[in-house]
């Protein structure tokens, strides 16, 4: 199957709306939320535009496993063979297998009546990257969410105190909207007065007054319905009505006014700045009010988007109509921001070409008309000691670094330009470098296609590397203001060539992502692993080493760590010896995991917390004991499903030592199966040799003369398994001994869980004990 390198661009509006509806719901599910940072990181590397719900969901579903997380929550059984023999070198194969499993499990749940029937889903619907196919995947996910919401109480989890915080955000929206309406009214009156004062000098102020009047009508509508909706607690929240999404005439008028205002923004700014030094005192009052607040109508759209996002993040989607109305309002404001930004970028680029042609005398074979879009212009510090600054212009095709030319006049036209120091600089706003008219001289220029890397060397400094004429260059810029360095770093990253291709191995972290989430509703938490495997199982479901389990809180009654505290108290535990009873338990965690294919997925994991691994974790220190082990007896002393255990003697200079040898039995002459068996053995060895805990059976080394496969050398326990010992000595086993044995078993299991290893066969036979 051919795979799409990314989502198909320009999705239709109905598909984008569906994504905006689905993504916020998935973000409220703790088990699914952990996959979203991975997909967002992928999206940020693959795309140069802002993140959208469409792109985030596509990259998330493309991993495969996040889709199966929803089925796990719904109680769908998973096929065990999907998780065996994982090929970590071919991620696409594993993604395809996960998608096949997802489709088959969906069909099974439809047959069982646990999921409403829907259209037939195929693998190519996701992997081909078509809009039609992805819409089918989204509709399937929507059906799953509907079934989950009906059968899973507490599916959506909000942080503590979310209701109060949400009310605060709504009050902030109402108060700021009321202040904005008052400001628009004052700006409209000032523009009307100035249009009469400068009537003979064009229609700049008259057009500005007309746009402000239309915006005032729209924002007045928003304020009226916000007051009406939230002054009556019984009234249902209808955000579509608040933002006039169901009133086509008003919505069209407001959208047109916003776009027109953006088109005339720079023209109005020039007009007002030219008049401020020649106006009378009464007129100057109106000019100054407009200069101070001219950008506010454009910034207000971003304020709406920010507050709506905060409100949505704290809303439970129990009332689908109300919840969807917030999503739709957020989608419309996002669309308007994109339109305003696109218009602003084009106008700012035209303005820069006109300005720089008059300010820069020598272009050195650079055509200012061919520089493409102006991404950013700013002042950046060149020398922290002297405070010398450079004017830097970042175009999509070239970076220009310029210095001011000394002149008797500070500005060409004698009027100092004002500029906003508000970071990040909006795409329709002139930056500090363009806001002045000082003559410039080009210090150096770098085509952006020569960029090799960009680094943030400190909180306020960035370094850029590039190759030009087979010479390696590096230049450092230092920011002047808070937020300035952030915006420059992001802008430069999007133009660096090395981010154009993405390796999924590099994008998806190899270890679990830490979480500071406290609002998990008491549910278990799980973390995604690097190769698209299931992220959650229920507390009593079949164990699977595909799941990375998190440590429980120490004080939770169901936590293994809490067992000692229930009987002794935390203070007493610290004072007791590690082995107060006559027995010490050893968890034989690999007894049956090999046969069940439980270790196939394990990769290199760093030790969490305070757990350390001794020198046995180094491959060079794992002993090859071939020829030093003497077998005792003619037959194995224990048998497993695929392995035998022999009692042997390890001959050493310091004395003999009894050991147990685990030997795999040969079962087939099939070369493919043989290769898989060897592969599993290597993985089991890779994991076992790195573990070091007093309640986990240690690995002494390996031998190669006990059959066709490498055999493992472990300590020999005379007391045998816990089950055998209890059968022989149950009468001498006190309650304290039982509790201590449970605590030691739990300690060994907790250590294994901290490395993402799950035992898989927790029985009395798989635990050994020894008399102390």
Automatic annotation (TrEMBL):
SUPFAM superfamilies: DBL homology domain (DH-domain), Protein kinase-like (PK-like). Transmembrane segments: none annotated. PROSITE patterns: DH_2, PROTEIN_KINASE_DOM. Residues 165-343 form the DH domain. InterPro entries: Cdc24/Scd1_N, DBL_dom_sf, DH_dom, Kinase-like_dom_sf, Prot_kinase_dom, Ser-Thr/Tyr_kinase_cat_dom, Ser/Thr_Kinases-Pseudokinases. Pfam families: CDC24 (PF06395), PK_Tyr_Ser-Thr (PF07714). One of its GO terms (molecular function) is ATP binding. Residues 631-772 form the Protein kinase domain. This is Protein kinase domain-containing protein.
